[in-house]
Automatic annotation (TrEMBL):
This is Beta-hexosaminidase. GO terms for molecular function: beta-N-acetylglucosaminidase activity. Belongs to the glycosyl hydrolase 20 family. Residues 91-207 form the Beta-hexosaminidase eukaryotic type N-terminal domain. Pfam families: Glyco_hydro_20, Glycohydro_20b2. It comes from Parnassius apollo (Apollo butterfly). The active site is at E402 (proton donor). GO terms for biological process: chitin catabolic process; glycosaminoglycan metabolic process; polysaccharide catabolic process.
Amino acid sequence: MFYEILQVRMDWQWALIVVLVHLAQGNEGNSVDPTPDLYEPSWVYKCEPEEGCQRSEHPQPTNSSAANSSFMVFESLDVCRTVCGPFGGLWPRPVTAVLSTQTLKMHPNLLRFALTNAPVETREMLVEMTHVITSNLFAECNGNITEMVETPVMVYISVKSPSLELTWDTDEQYLLDVQNEVDNIVVHISAETVYGARHALESFTQLIAPDRPEFSNQHQCGLRIVTGAKIRDKPVYKHRGLVLDTSRNFIPMEDIKRTIDGMAATKMNVFHWHVTDSQSFPLESRRVPQFTKYGAYSANEIYSTEEVRELIRYARIRGIRVVIEIDSPAHAGNGWQWGKEYGFGDLAVCVNARSWRHLCIEPPCGQLNPANPAMYRVLRDLYRDIAELVPQPALFHVGGDEVYLGCWNSSEEIVSYMKNKGFDTDTEGFIRLWAEFHSKALQIWDEETMAVGGQQQPVLIWSSELTQPERIQNYLDKKRYIIEVWEPLSSPLLTQLLRMGYKTISIPKDIWYLDHGFWGKTKYSNWRRMYGHVLPRDPNVLGGEVAMWSEYVDAQALDTRVWPRAAAVGERLWSDPRSGFAAAEPRLQRLRARLRARGLRPDVVSPEWCAQHDARCY
Ligand SMILES: *[C@@H]1O[C@H](CO)[C@@H](O)[C@H](O)[C@H]1NC(C)=O
Ligand SMILES: *[C@@H]1O[C@H](CO)[C@@H](O)[C@H](O)[C@H]1NC(C)=O
Ligand SMILES: *[C@@H]1O[C@H](CO)[C@@H](O)[C@H](O)[C@H]1NC(C)=O
Ligand SMILES: *[C@@H]1O[C@H](CO)[C@@H](O)[C@H](O)[C@H]1NC(C)=O
């Protein structure tokens, strides 16, 4: 029986090969050049009331279609999406928008920006912001806009505040008004801050789409702009973050910048940079060059101080604050193992220990040595370097998760330090030691911040054993620590901390972790699941983050792992719409196309047929 099946299969294979050979030969003999007219589809897209953009079943290259709004038939799916539905192709969905369904051809060369009422302090940054959006528009046609256009687009930008500070108090709201006047398009942007104006500019670019008539020349591309729009917009949450881990695997600067571009496209505003961990220390410290010498994977896997400074600037122009995290006292090993050699004693313990299971969550182990005063001196130098780099007022993340008491307990030096201090060597004693570390580290951070002219600011810290409701008030001052809660959804911790008056950032690991589904028993969250999660509306929930831990990702798959899923969280945190994923998906498809134009490689959302037939796949 098995033999027979095998035989049949083999026959099939031979049969196939024979047919293929015949085909090939046949082609050689009487080959007819297929004419493109016969074989290439020439779909058009209709915007239908409840259905969104639908590929037309009876493609008829109508001439006036793209411009013909009364008919709502488009030659380009991108243009269809930009006008179809109450929020067109906007992502994240603004709070309110009224969009015209008419479009006009436009060309970025005919874009003029006028900074009316913009304080001197903000002008330079506004100019840079306009450069970013102009180049994003060219990118929509792959840098080659072939259509000649004569309609100028005038953009008047009015910003009230001279402040360039990016904090939780930054006013990000904006008004965007687009009108079609006699023979030009006039755009008015008004915002309190440059960052609000930047968000308006981003929304403005989302009112423009590439028009590539499929049935004309494939290589032609022009842009069309919605001729009327009124958008009034502001974020629901002030903290809309993305964590990127660059320690487990190094992520080159250009890939980080591309990630920042994606965040800017989705109005996310905090790049939480988990730059170091026990695996590697790629961050250059001018005062402590040993960190990279002993901690970087290679000479090519280091972020120089200059690169970091440039990244911070790059992010600011895109309305994004860079929050550097130096995880501590756990998650610190490689980069800290040179103390003995320099006469400083052990700066960290358990570093790269062989039998790791009792000493850390994953290899390689390592925890800072809180018994060694030299460790605090080195930490101070590192903090000073960071304080000098980041603009004030700075937001810093001290890490603070997953301390393995067994690691500290395995060090005689630490245990005897504890005995001298009168700490028990039971769990609570080690918790005291852990809290003492944070209190000393915070004091050092404060001192170094003030030394560079800054002021005391709260810091971020991960939830942990230390932040349990029965302990936290003994150790962490609610004015100084914002708790980043990464417990699973089922955990009551977030609610408990809110009830106690702590400010929080929410990042439920079983739903907003982008690495889940790639290791162990973790479950992958698709964008719909990520989008479906809603945070409590409480003034002490500053916002949320989505996390790309890098154990199983590097630059090769970064974009597909992060995008467009992070954008789902971006919209949840920006406007927190009550409508479900069905209202979002066509806009997400447009966002994906936009990210691709800007050089990202976002993962696919659906079969392309579904993308061409909104609402027909759910
Ligand atoms: C479209 O219209 C232009 C002029 O308006 C005409 O030259 C052209 O032949 C028309 N094409 C089709 C496919 O009808
Ligand atoms: C739109 O299409 C309809 C039907 O083909 C046509 O009658 C009308 O003139 C067109 N309008 C414009 C502005 O081209
Ligand atoms: C731009 O597109 C035109 C028209 O298809 C083509 O002739 C030209 O070579 C392109 N230019 C570049 C720089 O790609
Ligand atoms: C630390 O080690 C001692 C001696 O082995 C043990 O009695 C104690 O329970 C340990 N403490 C913790 C928190 O594990």
